[in-house]
Specification:
mainly alpha, Symplekin/Pta1, Clathrin/coatomer adaptor adaptin-like N-terminal domain-containing protein, 75% helix
């Protein structure tokens, strides 16, 4: 069978799985998810099909997105093993995880109403790993006044709840204290003052403030 024929057969099988919405979305991670993960990891066409399915309606498919993220993370950390994957380097596996995580963000931007903020928070608070690209994406979003203040509040929460990226999120808030948008600037200062009330964060905030020549 030619590669083109194999890809076509795989895509047909994946589409059948994806259109079984009740089984995929409501039952969570089952054998179908395992199949999707394995196929997508070794076949870019299948991976794009799954990503497209999730991002086309992120509001109703967020649970599938999380299942996918955790599967990708398990592959990256070596908790899942497959003969076809053993030749993949950690860098390739990390890039695969990062690519999917980053593609979730613009799909959330297209969601209307309060769901947009709650979905963004869920992705950043519940994703197993936050990559550098994801940090940069949140910096861009929190600089955009069209999102209002929700991303700033999220940054504050992430400083507390995502210790491995604490410095990165704190630096974004500190950068925003010099933002040319007065609403973003003033609220960033308020949030930093609130964070400064946490004894375990006081020294860190002071050190970063000195480095950036900021007076709170």
């Amino acid at each position: 069978m030619s590669k083109e024929a194999r890809d076509k057969t795989l895509l047909m099988a994946v589409n059948r799985i994806l259109t079984t919405k009740k089984s995929i979305v409501r039952e969570g991670v089952d054998i179908r998810m395992k199949i999707l993960t394995t196929l997508a990891a070794v076949n870019p066409c299948v991976k794009e099909a799954v990503i497209r399915y999730v991002t086309n309606n992120i509001r109703s498919r967020i649970e599938l997105a999380f299942s996918w993220l955790y599967e990708e993370c398990a592959l990256l950390q070596g908790f899942q093993w497959c003969t076809s994957l053993c030749l993949m380097t950690p860098e390739v596996l990390h890039q695969a995880y990062n690519d999917f995580l980053i593609k979730l963000v613009p799909s959330i931007q297209n969601v209307d109403g309060e769901d947009r903020n709650s979905l963004l928070s869920r992705v950043y608070l519940e994703a197993p790993l936050i990559t550098e690209d994801a940090v940069k994406a949140l910096k861009t979003i929190s600089s955009d006044g069209t999102w209002r203040l929700a991303p700033l509040q999220l940054l504050k929460e992430l400083v507390i709840k995502r210790p491995t990226k604490q410095h990165a999120f704190l630096n974004i808030l500190l950068c925003h204290t010099k933002h040319n948008n007065s609403t973003i600037r003033e609220n960033a200062i308020i949030l930093l003052i609130e964070l400064n009330a946490h004894p375990e964060l006081t020294k860190m905030i002071k050190e970063h403030s000195v480095l950036q020549h900021i007076h709170l």
